[in-house]
Design brief:
The complex is a heterodimer of chains A (906) and B (351). With 906 residues, chain A is mainly beta. Helices cover 8% and strands 52% of the residues of chain A. Chain A starts with a helix and ends with a strand. Chain B is built from 3 helices and 23 strands.
């Protein structure tokens, strides 16, 4: 008999292990009532069978001696059972949804583990154990040492082989089968947290991580976080911690340069903060700081990015499959998320560097409350350094910048949250008392989130962004000719968005956005009262862009997730404005103006519109990997006008108008993604094809600034890009890092009616951003708990160049005749940087924490070409075999640059 | 010590490098090149025709001797240039200001023509001024660190008319130092040229200026630091030179806007260095096209301009009390020379 019982029990346990989740919902929710005072347990089972027709299986000898005292009215059966068997030597399971099996606890081998109860985290009311088949666990991942939230951390259940990534607020949400789980929480630079839990019902759990400085987990290529589509591809996220650990120039972590280590994202070179995504121009990237756009992302002409790295929480970049809520730019969207502020304590931290220093102060308004603040700033002392030198040219030069940022995060009750952001930056530069260049950004935003119900969120976002640039031209001999030239742009927007999440497998977003643009393409004013300068102005431009969007993500089958999105954008340009009409028989030139049309104030000059469908799809494979595909169409109505190959602060923004049509782009991408060993290794690969229409190009020798007829110097071009991208990442271990490689081509074609508007006889030619091979290798090695070594290596094909092929002499000067546009290619770019970091102490309770970082940029002093130009050599510099007139290449950073930075936290 | 650290830090930041770059270039067909400056004064006319050479070749020019070169007047008459040597063609005809002309070249059975250009009226200088001036320049010291250098001298400024017909100027200039060496038995009158070949000076109205005058245009600078011309300095000191004075010879050309832009672009093509942002290349546009085959190109320019020669005498510069007067143009001053006892015809004195 006992043999049979044992077999039965073994069978039941087996069934329990593999099938409990599919049988648990049938009887346990049935409400029952009863009163038992010192009654044998057997009576309760008999009543159950009699009143509720629920059978109970047990062995008499197990229950004979057990009595119960319990009164319950209309309580779910599962709660009653849990109460009865609480602290009992007996256990129960519900069998096939309509029967109960009771057996001694010591037969259940699953509970004979080595885990201590102290370490076990129970989520939910034990009375509800077994009541639910699945439950949602949510909470936050935070830095245990200082309470900082950790966006991008992984929360992973070993049993269910399922994981999620914490969102930009450090919050995660994961649905798991109820029962026991070994949760693993990863985050780069932190010790892995192994937390056993018993999940009974929906509940919350915050996980703390502590510094270890070895992991790389938050570099995500795709994410499962709540705000990101599950089918999202072509997305990169880097946290501020990873940014800070990369070896960088002058020891200053750089938001944008860190992104260029990822496949498909390229930098032009050292003197550029702009970046190119999948061959796109720098103005095709929408850079958002907490939702507000930034129009110049650099300080000191590109040596530093415009954001204090201490204020940045993380950076997310979409290079394809861009969600329908985004529009405006065709190549990418970069979302820079600023920190919310520490909720537990006030903290001061910053860094001291060779060129500049920075500080940040953050904390709660009231300890333990959800309202927080964070303020920070950065300034350079390069002016002071310049004045201390004995170099006369430098002593008379100006090169300074500052930026300040402040953010308030106010919790207005449990359902409303308000975020306010303010940012201001300024740069000034001149060389030896020459023309003084000033430029700066001013940004403000308000973000009000409302939780309308458990499943419905509303988000109101108001933003303001202004970019101003001016040149103060000084003429020592003739001050009457001095002038100030200004350009700028003001952007105001309002967006309202609803997010509806009926289930964790279905999410719907819908909303609308209104943008008001005010462009100042150029204005010149005399610098003094008595002047020969006539005040002149290129007509300001006023435009309105509206967008409506909806996207719906749902599981079509167990393996297939779809995200269908649609955006409709409309753009209108308003007067006052004068549109010149040209003789259609000739290329557009001022001499061919035939008439003009005057548009009054707020009179519509021209309007454009377009549908922008977005489709993303994810297909889960049996091997745990997934295949993802995406298609997007985007219209861009604003262009940066520039005829330099590197974005400069003097480049100004221009609205689409009567002649300059909107840039339209379509992109298709497909990729394969796979994690190995519970996400410790990650591999992904993507291929894409992008088509571009109405790209702005320029005639030879085009004059762009202060040109009232700029349409006469501009050409419309088309183009395409395609490429293959690959990322291999080792996220954990003493040695970790990633390798990214991209092969990409980007071509242009300007085949217009008139010869002056044609480039390279109308044939396709490589874009200036066509750099086919791009390899980045990033490695971190944890020497000990205090010492860390990091290195990165970058290799890029040289960018296309137009070089002189022929030479001739006019007078005493030797001149050159250039090749077809971008016919040649500069030498390849490669560089290695290293850094060594020493943490002063690792004690959690230590108030002052500091670390020293010694880094060397361009370790082997490679002379990477920044530009190639033709000039007359100084006769005394001409060496044997050289000529007086030569082609030269300039390397901005041609030697190894060591730097020492001290970072502190108080 | 702090200064040293700061200088090291700064030096580390001055890390840009410039290297000669010699890429592999493809072989391309050569193009004809013309430089034609035709003026109201035949003495200033100049025509040269050559073929381009490959950028990497040592040879800088390849003369063309078999072209037919004509200047066509608006009334239909034409004047032909005669081949001289090494690609140079003589054109000894006087053209009338205010009339329209075009250049016509027949080469390898193709016809190349310029647009019609009007010969501008002869230019003038509204105001001439000389002031003591300290020129600032930079050069690397022995340790390769760029240093600022000051050169004492004098600067010539001019005011020029800026009218619709007359506002684009090109200057070529020469300066002659004249001095007297007092020997025991006689005085020797000597002179030497301080010209800088190829130093074209261009003037045009300031950007966005409404003025009808181009004011205080910097024309030329001459150093008083004769030590920079070591041989001359040694000579002057050794021989105890006296009565030092300068004769400035200024050729003022008034150009068309197209020709002016051509020379400006040519100068700009050699000044691409030192710019913060890599500029897009700029092909220099000439004003001559092939009318028989639009696929063929001719480089260079037809510069139809009027010219005026000005000469000034300037002295007492070192004393700080500068004296100058205008002198009638003297077309020939040898680059250097000596005249014992009797001064040469062009010799100048204070009036």
């Amino acid at each position: 008999m006992s043999h049979i019982i044992k077999k039965c029990i073994a069978l039941f346990i087996l069934l329990f292990l593999f099938g409990i989740t599919s049988i648990a919902q049938s009887i346990q929710e049935r409400n029952i009532s009863g009163t038992y005072t010192g009654a044998p347990l057997k009576h309760f089972f008999e009543d159950l069978e009699k009143k509720e027709h629920i059978k109970t299986f047990y062995k008499d000898q197990w229950v004979d001696t057990v009595t119960i005292t319990y009164t319950f009215t209309n309580r779910p059966l599962v709660q009653v059972l849990n109460k009865l068997f609480e602290n009992s030597r007996l256990k129960y399971v519900i069998f096939q949804g309509d029967a109960i099996i009771v057996y001694p606890r010591n037969i259940d081998q699953r509970y004979l583990t080595t885990k201590t109860d102290q370490n076990l985290l129970v989520i939910g009311d034990p009375l509800n154990e077994g009541r639910y088949k699945k439950a949602v666990l949510k909470g936050k991942v935070i830095d245990g040492a200082n309470g900082d939230i950790l966006p991008g951390a992984s929360v992973y259940s070993q049993q269910s082989r399922k994981g999620v990534t914490s969102n930009s607020k450090g919050e995660y949400e994961i649905e798991l089968p109820t029962g026991s789980h070994d949760m693993k929480i990863f985050f780069m630079g932190y010790e892995q947290n192994n937390q056993p839990i018993k999940l009974i019902e929906n509940g919350k759990a915050d996980f703390e991580l502590y510094d270890e400085t070895i992991n790389l987990e938050e570099v995500k290529v795709v994410s499962n976080e709540a705000s990101i589509s599950r089918s999202q591809m072509s997305m990169v996220r880097i946290s501020s911690k990873v940014m800070k650990e990369l070896p960088v120039l002058m020891g200053e972590a750089d938001v944008i340069k860190s992104m260029t280590t990822m496949p498909g994202i390229q930098s032009v070179g050292e003197l550029s903060s702009g970046f190119n995504v999948r061959g796109g121009n720098t103005d095709q990237n929408l850079v958002l700081v907490d939702g507000a756009p930034v129009f110049n992302t650099s300080h000191l002409f590109g040596f530093f990015s415009m954001l204090n790295p201490d204020a940045v929480r993380d950076v997310t970049l979409f290079k394809g499959g861009i969600p329908a809520r985004y529009g405006e730019r065709v190549s990418s969207v970069m979302e820079v998320g600023l920190k919310d502020g520490n909720k537990d304590k006030v903290a001061l931290y910053g860094g001291l560097g060779i060129i500049n220093s920075r500080f940040t102060l953050e904390g709660p308004f009231k300890k333990g409350k959800n309202s927080t603040f964070i303020i920070g700033g950065r300034s350079t002392y390069s002016d002071w350094l310049l004045r201390k030198t004995r170099n006369a040219e430098l002593m008379n030069s100006v090169a300074n910048f500052y930026d300040v940022n402040a953010k308030l995060n106010l919790a207005l009750g449990k359902k409303n949250q308000l975020e306010l952001l303010a940012y201001n930056s300024f740069d000034a530069f001149n060389l030896n008392q020459g023309s003084l260049y000033n430029y700066g950004n001013t940004i403000g935003s308000l973000n009000w989130r409302t939780k309308l119900s458990k499943k419905l969120m509303a988000d109101l976002k108001l933003t303001y962004s202004e970019y101003d640039f001016d040149v103060q031209e000084k003429n020592e001999q003739n001050s009457a000719e001095n002038y100030i030239l200004k350009t700028g742009l003001v952007y105001k927007s309002g967006q309202y968005q609803f997010s509806y999440t009926p289930t964790d497998k279905h999410r719907l977003n819908a909303g609308a956005k209104y943008i008001d643009y005010f462009f100042q393409p150029g204005e010149i004013k005399p610098a003094q009262q008595e002047s020969n300068i006539i005040a002149e102005k290129v007509d300001n431009e006023k435009a309105v862009e509206t967008g409506m969007f909806i996207d719906d993500e749902f599981d079509l089958t167990r393996k297939l997730t779809l995200n269908l999105g649609l955006r409709y954008s409309q753009y209108a340009n308003y007067g006052p404005s004068t549109v010149y009409l040209y003789d259609p028989e000739h290329t557009r030139e001022v001499s061919y103006i035939t008439d003009s049309i005057q548009f009054g104030k707020n009179e519509q000059v021209i309007a454009y519109n377009g549908w922008e469908p977005r489709i993303s799809m994810k297909f889960n494979l049996e091997n745990g990997g997934s295949v993802r595909m995406s298609y997007q169409k985007i219209n861009q109505y604003v262009n940066q006008i520039s005829n330099t190959s590197v974005a400069s602060p003097a480049d100004f923004f221009k609205s689409s108008d009567y002649y300059i049509k909107p840039l339209r782009s379509q992109q298709f991408a497909i990729g394969y993604f796979k994690d190995y060993q519970e996400g410790r290794y990650e591999a992904s690969t993507e291929v894409y094809y992008k088509d571009l229409e109405n790209l702005p190009e320029y005639k030879d020798g085009a004059v762009l600034l202060m040109n009232k007829h700029i349409e006469t110097d501009m050409i419309s071009a088309n183009g395409y890009s395609y490429g293959f991208e690959m990322l291999l990442k080792k996220a954990t271990g003493r040695l970790n890092g990633w390798i990214s490689y991209a092969y990409a081509r980007t071509m242009r074609e300007a085949d217009n009616l008139y010869r002056e508007e044609t480039i390279n006889k109308g044939n396709y030619y490589p874009s200036v951003y066509d750099k086919p091979h791009d390899l980045s290798v990033i490695a971190n090695y944890l020497i000990s708990r205090r010492w860390r070594f990091s290195a990165n290596f970058e290799y890029m094909s040289g960018r296309p160049a137009t070089l002189p092929e022929l030479k001739y002499t006019i007078g005493e000067a030797q001149l050159v005749y250039y090749s077809d546009r971008n016919k040649y290619r500069m030498p390849p770019y490669h560089r290695m940087d290293v850094s060594l970091t020493f943490d002063e102490n690792l004690r959690k309770k230590r108030v002052w924490k500091g670390s020293w970082t010694l880094s060397v940029y361009n370790l082997y002093g490679r002379h990477n070409p920044y530009s190639v130009y033709y000039k007359k050599n100084l006769p005394e510099n001409v060496r044997e075999g050289e000529k007086l007139f030569e082609l030269f290449k300039l390397s901005v950073i041609g030697v190894p640059i060591p730097s020492l930075t001290y970072n502190f936290r108080f | 010590m702090i200064r040293l650290i700061l200088n090291i830090a700064l030096l580390l930041s001055l890390v840009a490098c410039e290297d000669v770059y010699r890429p592999e270039l493809m072989d391309m067909p050569q193009l004809p090149v013309i430089e034609a400056r035709i003026t109201n004064n035949p003495a200033f006319n100049y025509i040269n025709i050559s073929m381009t050479t490959k950028f990497t070749d040592r040879l800088t020019s390849n003369p063309v001797s078999d072209a037919r070169v004509e200047v066509l007047k608006e009334d239909g008459t034409f004047y032909q240039a005669e081949y001289s040597y090494s690609g140079y063609y003589n054109f000894n005809h006087s053209l009338e200001t205010g009339k329209r002309y075009k250049l016509r070249i027949i080469l390898d059975n193709e016809l190349y023509e310029s647009e019609w250009e009007k010969l501008p009226i002869t230019p003038s200088i509204e105001k001439f001024n000389v002031e003591p001036y300290v020129q600032v320049s930079y050069a690397d010291n022995l340790y390769g660190i760029p240093n600022k250098y000051y050169t004492k001298g004098f600067q010539v400024f001019v005011d020029l008319p800026a009218t619709d017909d007359n506002k684009y100027y090109l200057f070529r200039w020469n300066s002659y130092l004249q001095f007297v060496i007092p020997y025991n038995s006689f005085r020797s009158y000597e002179w030497i040229s301080f010209s800088k070949p190829g130093s074209d000076n261009m003037a045009e109205p300031s950007l966005h200026s409404s003025s009808t005058t181009i004011s205080n245009h910097k024309l030329m600078f001459n150093t008083l630091d004769y030590l920079s011309y070591l041989d001359t300095a040694e000579y002057l000191i050794r021989k105890k030179a006296m009565d030092l004075g300068w004769i400035f010879q200024i050729d003022q050309y008034c150009q068309s806007e197209g020709a002016h832009q051509f020379f400006k672009s040519a100068a700009g093509q050699l000044k691409a260095d030192g710019q913060l942002f890599d500029p897009m290349y700029s092909q220099i546009k000439g004003n001559i096209s092939c009318t028989t085959n639009p696929e063929k190109h001719m480089l260079g320019v037809f510069d139809l301009c009027s010219v005026t020669r000005h000469q000034y005498y300037v002295t007492d510069i070192e004393a700080g009390n500068i004296y100058y007067h205008r002198i009638e143009p003297i077309f020939t001053i040898p680059n250097e020379g000596t005249s014992e006892r009797v001064p040469p015809d062009f010799w100048q004195r204070k009036k």
